[in-house]
Amino acid sequence: MTNDAKPIPAKPHADNAAWKEIVLKYQKPSVWRALWQIIDTVIPYGLLWYLMYLCLPVSWWLVVPLAIFAGAMLVRVFIIFHDCGHGSFFKSRAANDTVGFIAGVLTFTPYYHWRWEHAIHHSSAGDLDKRGTGDVWTMTVQEYLESSRWKKFAYRLSRNPFILFVIAPLFLFLLRQRFPSPKASQRERHSVHAMNAAILGMAIALSLIFGWKEYLLIQLIILMVAGGAGVWMFYVQHQFEDVYWERGEDWSYVAAALQGSSFYKLPRVLQWFSGNIGFHHIHHLSPRIPNYNLEKCHKADPLFQQVKPITLFSSFKSATYRLWDEKNKRLVGYRHLRELRKQQKQQKHATGHK
After folding, report:
1. DSSP H/E element including 227
2. Mean pLDDT over each residue of the chain, to the nearest integer
3. Which of 187, 220, 321, 350 is the most buried (most CB within 10 A)?
4. pTM, entire model
5. pLDDT for res 42
6. How many domains is the chain partitioned into structurally?
């Protein structure tokens, strides 16, 4: 994205009531659309596991491509899990919680604990004073310059693409989510333990069917693909050049949604696998809209279409952004630091001559 996009008012005026009325029409879950999404997602995912079982005695050259495909399908399973956590997939709370728990087992994610942390993300996205929960570690230029060498090293390491999109997803889904947050309530803590028990049961059952070494390798491939793709999607949704970050009273919920969450315009096939979550500006505006209604809502009003899309090709540039420049209101790369130091030296040199 570039800075020539038409700006969206940070604090909407009369449009406030208008957008609320528009999104309300798309917040109604459809039982049939939800059931069909389960049918065309969870059943093919299970079928892929069966095909891998059949292919194991033949060749791993057949198993690995199927595992990669299963990883792509798991991204779509996670979107179902995600919608259930927002209470938007079904009208029934019990149905959301039941399907959400089952999808949580498949995605190695504790349902209630994740729902609690994700709610914090939605209430604080784009607020510089409330960073740290459910987001990508983002420092301002000034914070980075004032940090110790160790903290700078840790930050650079965390922003390394290999760490961010390969190591971090595996750490998150295999290890981090096995332990509750110290701030979690008793319900969220219990959800982590219950999920761990369910995942262990699934792992034992599949290990008895496939063999424990075979199961672990297949599951690892699937989680690498799904986790890497999922983290990349989340990263692009909130890490682009003219993203929205503000402090305190200057922060606006609507602006944080429409300016701080991207419209990731993907090819149709990738849009399907990612469960329409590329319409992330709509999702943050109204998390109660199920994923199967996001595109319709986006097309419903010109206000939403003012958000300039990020294409698949242009999104790769997001990987070069590292720090938030508070002065110029944009994300910048490490090159900006070198330019900043050069300017400071020139200023000192000019002052010395005077």
Report:
1. helix 212-238
2. 91
3. 321
4. 0.90
5. 97
6. 1
Per-residue pLDDT at 3 exceeds 80: no
Closest alpha carbon to 237 in 111, 132, 136:
136
- CB distance 258 to 285 below 8 Å: yes
Nearest-angstrom CA–CA distance, 56 and 72: 20
Contact 325, 333 (CB under 8 A): no
Does 32 map to a domain?
Answer: yes
In a domain, 215, yes or no: yes
Picking from 256, 237, 1, the residue whose alpha carbon sits closest to that of residue 129 is 256
| Mean local confidence (pLDDT), 317-336 | 92
**Mean per-residue pLDDT for 4-21?**
53
DSSP secondary-structure letter at 167? I
The C-alpha atoms of residue 126 and residue 248 are separated, in whole angstroms, by 10
Residue given tokens 């319709």 in the structure block: 296
Domain housing 307: 15-353
Secondary structure (DSSP) of 253-302? HHHHHHTTS-BEE--HHHHHHTTTTTBHHHHHH-TTS-GGGHHHHHTT-H
Within a domain: 3: no
Q: For residue range 61-86, what is the model confidence (pLDDT) as tens digits?
A: 999 999 999 999 999 999 999 999 99
In a domain, 131, yes or no: yes
Indicate the burial class of 99 (C-beta count within 10 angstroms; 0-12, 13-18, 19 or more): buried
Give ∠ CA 329-338-321 in degrees, rounded to 5: 45
The secondary element (H helix, E strand) that includes residue 30 is none
